[in-house]
From TrEMBL:
GO terms for molecular function: allantoicase activity. It holds the Pfam family Allantoicase. The keyword Cell wall biogenesis/degradation does not apply. Residues 25-171, 192-333 form the Allantoicase domain. Gene3D superfamilies: Galactose-binding domain-like. NCBIfam families: allantoicase. It comes from the Bacteria. Its EC number is 3.5.3.4. This is Probable allantoicase. It comes from Phragmitibacter flavus. HAMAP family: Allantoicase. PANTHER family: ALLANTOICASE (PTHR12045), INACTIVE ALLANTOICASE-RELATED (PTHR12045:SF3). One of its GO terms (biological process) is allantoin catabolic process.
Length: 335
C-alpha cells in the first residue's frame, strides 16, 4: 500500500512532488554509516512499519535508515540524488517507530550538479537548518528555494534512525530541446505538473494520477469517498508547460466495483489569479473532453472526441459521480 498523508499534513505535501521518490528515479547515493538499516529504506514510498520481534544479523530490524551509536565527534549524513532537478518547497523528517533511537536533531543541505555526483569540493547550501526532532513523529518543515537543486544531504545530529525522508518540490524541466510536434505527457509529475486542488482525496491522493507507470494496486490511485449527495468529484491540474492536447488516457486499472461511471475534462489558458481563485474559475472553463463512459479496470484512450481548445495551461478532471482512477495522461504538443 502506498503511503497516504496524515490529515494535518501541510499543503506543500499535496501540491508538490516528492523529489526523493525512487519511483521517479531518486537514489540514495552515499551515507556515513548504515549499520542497523540501509539508506535506501528511507526513500520507500510506502508508509513505515514496525514488526515486533523481527531481528537481523545487526540487531532489531527497522523500516528506515539507521546508523550505529556514534562514539566519536561529528555526525551522520546521507546524500540523495533527486529524481529531477527542482526547487524545494518543504520536507518531512519522519521518525515513525523510532523512539529511543531517533536523532535529537536533523538538517538538510542541497546542491546543483547536473553531470556529476557531489564530492569533497561540492558547495552545499543549507535549506533546512538544524531542527529538534521527536520520536515517532512527522516533522513538516517549509522551505522556499528560488534555484533548482539536483542533490540533497540530510544530516543527523549526531546519529540515529530516520524512517522516511520526503523532499517536496517543483521539478524544473528543460523544454528548449523538446522536438516540435512530438507528443509530450503534459500531466506527468516528473515534468512539473501538479495538483492545484481536489474536492476529495479520502482513499487516495489526486497527485497519484500524475505518477509514471500503471498503478500497482487499488491503493495506487486517486479515490474519493462514496458520494451521498448530488454533484460529482473533481481535481484541477496545472500542466507541466503550456501545450495543445491531442490525446487523453484515463486508466482505471484495479478499480472494479468503485470506478467512476463517466468523466469529462475542461481546459483553459490561465494567465493570472491564484490557485484558490482557479477553483471557482474552473467551473466555467470550456469542455476539452465531453462526458465519456468509463469501464472498470481499463485503459481508456480518447482522441477523436477531443475539442480543440488550442494552447492551455490547466485542466479540470471531473469524475461522475465519484470513485477511483489510477492514472491520467494528457498528451500534447508544445508551442
Amino acid at each position: 500500500m502506498i503511503s497516504s498523508l496524515p490529515p494535518d499534513a501541510p499543503d506543500f505535501t499535496r501540491r508538490y512532488t516528492n523529489l526523493a521518490d525512487p519511483r521517479l528515479g531518486a537514489i540514495a547515493l552515499l551515507a556515513s554509516d548504515e549499520f542497523f538499516a540501509p539508506k535506501e529504506r528511507m526513500l520507500s514510498p510506502e508508509a513505515p512499519i514496525f514488526i515486533p520481534g523481527k531481528y537481523d544479523t545487526h540487531g532489531k530490524w527497522m523500516d528506515g535508515w539507521e546508523t550505529r551509536r556514534k562514539r566519536t565527534t561529528g555526525h551522520d549524513w546521507c546524500i540523495i540524488k533527486l529524481a529531477r532537478p527542482g526547487t524545494i518547497e518543504g520536507v518531512d523528517f519522519d521518525t515513525s517507530h523510532f523512539t529511543g533511537n531517533f536523532p535529537p536533531a536533523a538538517s538538510l543541505e542541497a546542491c546543483y550538479q547536473a553531470d556529476t555526483d557531489p564530492d569533497d569540493t561540492t558547495e552545499w547550501i543549507e535549506i533546512i537548518p538544524s531542527t529538534t526532532l521527536a520520536g515517532n513523529s512527522h516533522h513538516y518543515l517549509s522551505a522556499s528555494s528560488i534555484r533548482a537543486f539536483t542533490h540533497v544531504r540530510v544530516n543527523l545530529y549526531p546519529d540515529g534512525g530516520l524512517a522516511r525522508l520526503r523532499v517536496y518540490g517543483q521539478p524544473r524541466a528543460d523544454w528548449h530541446d523538446a522536438p516540435k510536434g512530438t507528443l509530450v505527457n503534459l500531466s506527468a509529475i516528473e515534468n512539473g505538473a501538479y495538483i492545484v486542488a481536489a474536492n476529495n482525496q479520502h482513499f487516495g491522493l489526486a497527485s497519484t494520477l500524475l505518477m509514471p507507470g500503471r498503478g500497482q494496486n487499488m491503493g495506487d490511485g486517486w479515490e474519493t469517498r462514496r458520494r451521498r449527495e448530488p454533484g460529482h468529484d473533481w481535481c484541477i491540474i496545472s500542466l507541466a508547460t503550456p501545450g495543445t492536447i491531442h490525446k487523453i488516457e484515463v486508466d482505471t486499472i484495479h478499480f472494479k466495483g468503485n470506478y467512476p461511471d463517466r468523466c469529462t475534462l475542461q481546459g483553459a489558458h490561465v494567465t493570472a489569479g491564484t490557485d484558490t481563485s482557479l477553483i471557482t474559475q474552473s467551473m466555467f472553463w470550456p469542455t476539452l473532453l465531453p462526458k465519456s463512459k468509463l469501464q472498470m479496470d481499463h485503459l481508456h484512450t480518447f482522441e477523436e472526441t477531443l475539442i480543440d481548445l488550442g494552447k492551455i495551461t490547466h485542466v479540470r478532471f471531473n469524475i461522475i459521480p465519484d470513485g477511483g482512477v489510477s492514472r491520467l495522461r494528457l498528451w500534447g504538443t508544445l508551442d
